[in-house]
Amino acid sequence: MKKPEILSPAGDMECLNSAISFGADAVFLAGSEFGMRTASKNFDNETLKKAVELAHNKGVKVFVTCNTLPRNDEIERLPEFLEFTQDCSVDALIIADMGVLRLAKKYAPNVDVHISTQAGIVNYATANAFYDMGASRVVLARELPLEQIAQIRAKTPKELEIECFVHGAMCVSFSGRCLISSYMTGRDANRGDCAQPCRWKYHLYEENREGQYFPVEENEKGTFLYNSRDLCMIEHIPELVKAGISSFKIEGRAKSAYYVAVTTNAYRHAVNDYMKMGDSFTLKPWIKEELDKISHREYNTGFYFGKEPGQVTSNGGYIRHYDVVAVCKDCTGNIAHITQRNKFLTGDVLDVLPPDGIPFEVTVSELKNKYGETVESAPHAMEELYMTTDKFIPQGSVIRKKKLDI
Prior knowledge:
Blueprint: E1 5-9, H1 13-21, E2 26-30, H2 45-57, E3 61-66, H3 72-75, H4 78-87, E4 92-95, H5 98-107, E5 112-115, H6 124-132, E6 137-139, H7 146-154, E7 161-169, H8 180-185, E8 203-205, E9 213-215, E10 230-232, H9 237-242, E11 247-250, H10 257-277, H11 285-290, E12 299-300, E13 322-332, E14 335-340, E15 344-345, E16 349-353, E17 360-363, E18 366-369, E19 374-375, E20 377-378, E21 384-388, E22 398-402
Parallel strand pairs: 1-2, 1-11, 2-3, 3-4, 4-5, 5-6, 6-7, 7-11, 10-12
Antiparallel strand pairs: 7-10, 8-9, 13-14, 13-22, 14-21, 15-20, 16-17, 16-22, 18-19, 18-21
Helix pairs in contact: 1-10, 4-5
């Protein structure tokens, strides 16, 4: 069995650093145009070049999303961007559009082509057709069960890599092909600008009763008809590997560096453990618990095992059990130099996620500000403090606090 790649999202430089620090083999990110996430900060030409240099210095590959469906005026700007990605030594371009694929082969011939999930690949004939057109990887549609993924693997060249999403937000539309946002807000989901109306709360209006609505609801909060659960396959690493998936993709280019750190770390440890232990593999409880420490919707396994319900009908919000309260800049003995993110107090028990990925708890015995003055709490975001605890905290650690209302 070949060890699968852990592919992490990088919406900005901070997320890129998190992905690298916590074990990603590769990252996917976007330039200032042609990517499917305009909500992310993304990378202009200067920062994209720096990102590739940083990642390559750490042995991490960089895949650039070029997966929008560009209009005529955008096509005219595409060759220059494609040439720039090759000049930067980008490892692959993620492409959904046939015209973009043809231009990529012309203007960036040394860059691998990965076919985006937007292409909706659900069978081996299509996968083989893209391979014949020069693709080195296909990102399969999210709607496929594992048994069909295994069939695609068996009936495609071994040189063709297969990538699948294993974690993150799901879209109610087939492979993300959706027009609801365009109709309702003018924001085109297929050009990276989705307003996520599938997450909104809906009521029914009757034509002749203007101003009166009639709730169509599962409970007192309303009905969330299109609100997909989040995908989580952390408990099914053996099945994913045995199906022949080459790359485990984590969704989330619009999410935080903390989300990237936790998800990357969890899947990194789970895959490493499985490749080491084989059939005797058992998922360590702390790995599964880590994925409950990030903001998420209710989890399920998507379409991998058939007809598990995919919608959250009770609410449109996230489950959030922990807050990030600080990041460790450095530590001497048991005194950590931290940058504060959310409020916490002297005496609090905090949860630490270090770069090696094994979480542990510390108790705060003392806090001092940059002037050496003792303080009882840390209420100011981004303030630098010195925190004395009962353990050494490695540089780069993310420090969290469990919310009191759970």
